[in-house]
Design goal:
- Helices cover 71% and strands 0% of the residues.
- It has 2 helices and no strands.
- It has helices at residues 12-27, 29-53.
C-alpha cells in the first residue's frame, strides 16, 4: 500500500476516493447507475461483434 510522502499530502488512492465522492455528490447515485448500464451494454455489443467476426464459434 502506498505511504504518504509527508504530512499534508494524500496518496493516489485517497485522491481518487475524494474525487469519486465529489462526483457522486454533484451527480448523484443515478448517474453511476446510468453510466454503468451504458458501459455494460457496450461490452455486450463488443462481445457479440467479436463472436460474429470469429464466425460465431467459441
Amino acid at each position: 500500500m502506498a505511504q504518504k510522502a509527508s504530512k499534508g499530502q494524500m496518496t493516489v488512492s485517497e485522491a481518487g476516493r475524494k474525487g469519486g465522492l465529489k462526483v457522486r455528490d454533484a451527480y448523484g447515485v443515478e448517474f453511476y447507475e446510468e453510466i454503468g448500464k451504458k458501459g455494460g451494454h457496450k461490452v455486450r455489443e463488443l462481445i457479440e461483434e467479436g463472436k460474429r467476426a470469429r464466425g460465431g464459434g467459441r
